[in-house]
Design brief:
The protein contains two helices and six strands, in the order E-E-E-H-E-E-E-H. It has about 90 residues and is α+β, with helices and mostly antiparallel strands. Strands 3-4-5-6 form a four-stranded antiparallel sheet.
Length: about 90
């Protein structure tokens, strides 16, 4: 079972969260070509090992959290708020 450490709510079962995708993707500007958007949206690496993912705590505080997870072992190394101003405000 995955336990995600929510910065507001503490460790919670992953079933409270919604997986929102790869947190390492750099999306192109809105006026970028269709090819650039196609690559950003549909072409993904399938990393083996440490990876950053975006999760949404939909059944909790509703925060967006960047989770560092090992894709081989599913071990969660850490989590932080995705929105930096919010993270800075609670410190």
């Amino acid at each position: 079972m995955l336990r995600i450490p929510c910065p507001f709510c503490g460790p919670r079962d992953h079933a409270e969260f919604s997986y929102e995708g790869d947190a390492t993707v750099a999306y192109p500007p809105l006026d970028a070509s269709r090819e650039d958007w196609f690559e950003a949206v549909f072409l993904r690496a399938n990393p083996c090992g440490a990876h950053r993912e975006m999760w949404h705590h939909v059944q909790g505080c509703r925060a967006f959290v960047v989770v560092e997870r090992d894709t081989l072992t599913h071990e969660i190394k850490g989590a932080r708020l995705a929105h930096r101003p919010t993270a800075e405000a609670i410190q």
